[in-house]
C-alpha cells in the first residue's frame, strides 16, 4: 500500500484501455484516493470507465487549454480535498496533418497546437495545482522517447521533446518547495489515442521483436506500476527524471530499428 492516504488527480482516462486507467486502478489498490478529469464529448466515455474502477470515482471537467477550466479545477479540488498529493499528466494531441509522415507539410498552427496541448500543458497543470501541493507531492507525465526521430510521429515527437524539457524546468522551479516532477517514457500501447496515429501498428511491431524483455502492447500495468512508484515516497529523492518502461528497447532499439 505504497500510496496509502494519498490524494491523486488522474488525467487522460478515455476508456478502460487507457494507460491512465491502469494508473488509477493500481493507485486505488495501493491505497490512494483518486479523481479523474475529462471534457466535452469524451467525458461520457471517461465516466463509463470511472465506474469500472475498483472504487468508482467522480470525473471533473478539464480542457487543459481553457483557463477557466484550470481555475475551476483548483477550486473544486480545494473544496473536495483541500490538498493534492500527486497528479498524472496523460494529455497529448497533435492534429492529423502533423502526423503520419507529414512533418514537412504540417502548418505552423498544427505544430503550435501539438506543443500547447502536449507540452505546455504540463506547466499549466502544475501551475493550477501548485496552491494545493506541499512538500512531498509528485507530478508525473507520460512520455514517448524523444531522443530520436521516429517514423510517423513527426510533430508529436517534437512536442514530446518539449515535454521532456518542460519536466526539467519544472523540477528546477518546484524542487525548492519539495515537489517532484518526473516522466515515464512508455513503450507503445494500443490505446484509443495511439490507434489514431497513422502507422502505429508498424511502429509498435518494433518493440515486440527487439525489446530485450519483450513488450506487450495490450498490457499497461508495467507503466502503471512505475507511475505509482514515482508518486510514492519511495521516489522522494527522484526529480527531473525520465524513467523508461519499454522492455529495455530504448537501450538498443534505435540502432536495431535503422539497421
What does this structure look like?
- The chain is α/β, with parallel strands linked by helices.
- It is built from 9 helices and 7 strands; from the N terminus they run βαβαβαβαβαβαααβα.
- The protein has a 7-stranded parallel sheet with strand order 3-2-1-4-5-6-7, with helices on both faces.
- α1 packs across α8.
- The chain is globular, with a radius of gyration of 17 Å.
- 45% of the residues are buried.
- Mean pLDDT is 93; it is low at 255-259.
Protein traits:
single chain; 259 residues; alpha/beta; Rossmann fold; seven-stranded parallel beta sheet; 7 strands; 43% helix; 13% strand; globular
Classify the oligomer. Answer: single chain
* Number of strand segments: 7
Look at the structure and name the CATH superfamily.
NAD(P)-binding Rossmann-like Domain
Low-confidence stretches: 255-259
Distance between the termini: 44 Å
Task: Tell me the layout of helices and strands.
Layout: E1 7-10, H1 19-29, E2 33-38, H2 43-50, E3 59-61, H3 67-80, E4 86-89, H4 108-129, E5 138-143, H5 154-174, E6 180-186, H6 192-195, H7 200-210, H8 221-231, E7 242-245, H9 249-257
Parallel strand pairs: 1-2, 1-4, 2-3, 4-5, 5-6, 6-7
Amino acid at each position: 500500500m505504497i500510496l496509502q492516504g494519498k490524494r491523486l488527480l488522474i488525467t487522460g482516462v478515455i476508456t478502460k484501455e487507457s494507460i491512465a486507467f491502469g494508473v488509477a486502478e493500481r493507485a486505488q489498490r495501493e491505497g490512494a484516493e483518486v479523481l479523474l478529469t475529462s471534457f466535452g464529448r469524451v467525458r461520457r466515455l471517461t465516466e463509463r470507465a470511472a465506474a469500472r474502477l475498483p472504487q468508482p470515482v467522480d470525473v471533473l471537467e478539464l480542457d487543459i487549454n481553457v483557463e477557466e477550466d484550470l481555475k475551476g479545477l483548483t477550486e473544486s479540488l480545494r473544496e473536495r480535498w483541500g490538498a493534492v498529493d500527486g497528479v498524472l499528466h496523460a494529455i497529448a494531441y497533435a492534429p492529423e496533418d502533423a502526423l503520419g509522415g507529414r512533418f514537412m507539410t504540417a502548418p505552423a498552427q498544427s505544430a503550435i497546437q501539438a506543443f500547447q496541448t502536449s507540452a505546455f500543458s504540463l506547466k499549466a497543470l502544475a501551475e493550477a495545482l501548485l496552491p494545493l501541493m506541499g512538500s512531498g507531492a509528485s507530478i508525473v507525465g507520460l512520455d514517448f522517447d524523444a531522443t530520436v526521430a521516429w517514423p510517423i510521429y513527426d510533430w508529436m515527437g517534437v512536442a514530446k521533446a518539449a515535454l521532456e524539457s518542460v519536466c526539467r524546468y519544472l523540477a528546477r522551479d518546484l524542487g525548492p518547495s519539495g515537489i517532484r516532477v518526473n516522466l515515464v517514457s512508455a513503450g507503445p500501447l494500443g490505446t484509443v489515442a495511439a490507434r489514431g496515429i497513422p502507422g502505429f501498428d508498424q511502429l509498435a511491431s518494433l518493440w515486440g521483436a527487439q525489446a530485450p524483455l519483450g513488450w506487450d502492447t495490450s498490457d499497461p500495468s508495467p507503466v502503471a506500476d512505475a507511475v505509482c512508484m514515482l508518486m510514492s515516497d519511495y521516489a522522494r529523492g527522484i526529480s527531473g527524471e525520465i524513467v523508461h518502461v519499454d522492455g529495455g528497447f530504448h537501450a538498443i532499439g534505435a540502432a536495431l530499428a535503422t539497421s
